[in-house]
Amino acid sequence: MVLLYSTRAHQLLQIVSFFLFTLVYSQDACPLQTPLYPPPRDLLSSQDVKVASDNLTQAIEEALTTGISDLGLLPINTTTFAIKVFSSHTEDSIYEYLYTSPTYSPETGAGAQNTTLDSVYRVASISKLLTVLTLLAHDGYTHWNHPITDFIPELDTIARNQTSRVQWQEITIGDLAAQLSGVPHDYGFEDLAGEYSNEQMMAMGLPAVPAKDIPTCNQGEAVNWGNPCDREEFLRGIPSEDPTFAPGTTPAYSNAAYQLLRYAMENITGIDFPSMFESGIVKPLNLNSTSLLVPKNANVGIIPINETVSVWDFNLGDGDAFGGAYSSANDLAVIGRSILQSLSGTSALNLSSTLTRHWLKPLSHTTSFKTSVGAPWEIFRYELPNRPNHVIDVYSKSGNLGAYADIIALIPEYEIGFSITAADLPTNPLPNVWGLADLIIDRLSPAFDKAAQQEANRTYAGTYKAHGANSTTDSYVTITTDHQKPGLQVTKWVSNGIDFLQSLAALSGFEGLAVRLYPTGIEESVPGNSAKRVFFRGTFDYDTSGQSKGVISACQSWLNVDASRVGNIGVDEWVFTLDKGRASSAEPRLMRKQLRLV
To answer: Looking at the predicted structure, is the pLDDT value of residue 148 above 90?
Structure first.
């Protein structure tokens, strides 16, 4: 019997050995680039989140008093701002903070006296995010990879006549959205030749500018104030500028790209942009404070000094697609929550879960290891102190115009996000908005991680046995969680009376083999009842800390997902059945047995 037992175990282990032992080797865990746990659903009940929120408030108030935080300078006492942290699973705020600076004074009587979460601010380049959201809601990715010359015939003519250095026929809709087009930053907007006379330019050491090279319209703040370029003027002027890069080379921020995107969207849909914006975002989400035009009632807005100095009523014309929108912290939270809800198909937005998952991905990188670019996401990668080899991606879009600076940020790992709206004069509030965002991520993310781990423990931890199993002859597994280790931990795995974990470790020659499970985002309903099946994939980690520490030898668990199968079943696939929020069974699919919670 002993011989047969050993032979059976060895045969089984031979089947899976290629998968297991070309796998992850690291002194630390090497998780998959997925959430470590299912997103937490009940953050308001988490004591860790409550403590972290108190710590965040303390840090903000220390910065208000001293002008610094433990992350650096943060002179926010002159900045009026509103903060809201939100979750996709509740309409209640996870955290909020309001501050009206004593220096804030709407001198003309226009503007709110104090900020609230519903106070309206200009959100500047957050408009770019809203423009792409409008495009996706109306057209999805249908025309994403089509050249823009298909939709802006004036540029097609210019390209055929070769009268511009910009490779218009090579630029796609997606390039415009992802800041990969190489289109110039602006046309007219903040062009010094439109702001200063030739005499003034020459006094600064600059040459005189020929009249033909001075923009005839301008979305800037000087001589052509109130005279934004219309479509004809813009399309006549932008081809005269040189590209920043060839299309697809590197991200280079461009407002002009989004004005072109606006024109292309109108051609694709046959609908004017303001109507698209209204039907794609404002109406489905019942937004009360979001618009492309200046609010008719200025008293809803935060307006430092007056409407002109603050740039509150500055008209960007067709530049509304890159910087014209107005919104509030509450409305931005509604928008962010709806994007997150689109991941599970529960959003009022016309976005499929697959489309949303694709959208929440980087499309290019920057010179910083921590920063990537999407469409038009500004993506920041944050590593928790106790989570080596795992990064949290923060998908954000910020804006800055005149007295205003704002940010909306999403953390899909936890299905949470935050919005900050701010205003200040004469200080530019953007560095303060970024500093506040840094504080939110630094203080709250570890608590969200802990809350996710604790919810996973309540939902999945336990011992699961085959029907009629006993401890010596059949199959069972024990699942736990540990805040110092990622994922669900498989601490016991007995298959047909064999200690499977011990056998794997013996065959590999490595001690301390660890099996960890990570959510895949795949769920399915169980026919006939309210239960659902939740799918996970596993990694098999063991310590080879003496191996190379070079870049190619880094954590590469993604290479081995589903890398070996037994009878068309991946050896790393697990399924849990959840009933009323608690796992009632576990199924290591390799074993072809459903194990019940005991």
So the answer is: yes
Band of pLDDT at residue 219, cut at 50, 70 and 90: low
Same domain, 109 and 233: yes
498, two tokens = 């064999």
Q: Which residue, among 363, 332, 407, has the nearest Cα to 79 in the 3D structure?
A: 407
Long-range contacts of residues 525-533, Cβ cutoff 8 Å, at least 24 apart = 526/577, 529/579, 530/579, 530/580, 531/577, 531/578, 531/579, 531/584, 532/577, 532/578, 533/575, 533/576, 533/577, 533/578
Dist. CA 417–CA 409, nearest whole Å: 5
Q: Which domain holds residue 38?
A: 2-42+459-597
Handedness of CA 250, 138, 282, 221 (dihedral sign): positive
424 and 505 within one domain: no
pLDDT at 386: 79
| Token output for 205 | 């050491």
Domain count, the chain: 2
Burial level of 77, CB count in 10 A (0-12/13-18/19+)? Answer: middle
Which pLDDT score is estimated for 22? 41
Reported as a single tens digit per residue, the pLDDT across 406-434 is 999 999 999 999 999 999 999 999 999 99
- Give the dihedral sign, CA 444/448/450/454: positive
DSSP result, 347-389: -SSS--HHHHHHHSS--EE-SSTTEEE-SS-EEEEE--TT-TT
Name the residue type at position 296.
K
**Alpha carbons 395 and 408: distance in angstroms, whole number:** 8
265: domain CATH number is 3.40.710.10
Closest CA to 14 of 498, 475, 492, 507: 507
The tens digit of pLDDT for each residue in 359-381 reads 999 999 999 999 999 999 999 99
Name the pLDDT band for 3 (thresholds 50, 70, 90): very low
Do 537 and 581 reside in the same domain of the chain? yes
In the DSSP assignment, the letter for residue 279 is I
CB-count burial class (<10 Å; 0-12, 13-18, 19+) for 484: exposed
* Token pair belonging to 501: 């974990």
> Which position has the higher pLDDT, 79 or 228?
79
- CA atoms lying within 13 Å on the CB side of residue 55: 16
Nearest residue to 83 via CA among 66, 98, 101: 98
Rg (CA), the chain: 28
Q: Are residues 474 and 422 in the same domain?
A: no
24-33, 86-95, 245-254, range with the lowest pLDDT: 24-33
Asked if pLDDT for residue 7 goes beyond 90, the answer is no
Residue 103 φ/ψ, nearest 5 degrees: -85, -10
